[in-house]
What does this fold into?
Amino acid sequence: MKLAENIRILFLPPYSPELNPQEHVWDELRESSFITVPSIVWMHLRFIWKAR
It folds into this structure.
């Protein structure tokens, strides 16, 4: 395959999350919103357990 002179091919490792912008978005989502859900569920489960 012949490439233009102004195009370079970069070979990336098979798994490189630091180079993938989508991974950064998922990190932000995990840190901001997904943390609250398990804590609410945990609080609810403790309440049910104490009610027994």
About this structure: The mean pLDDT is 77.
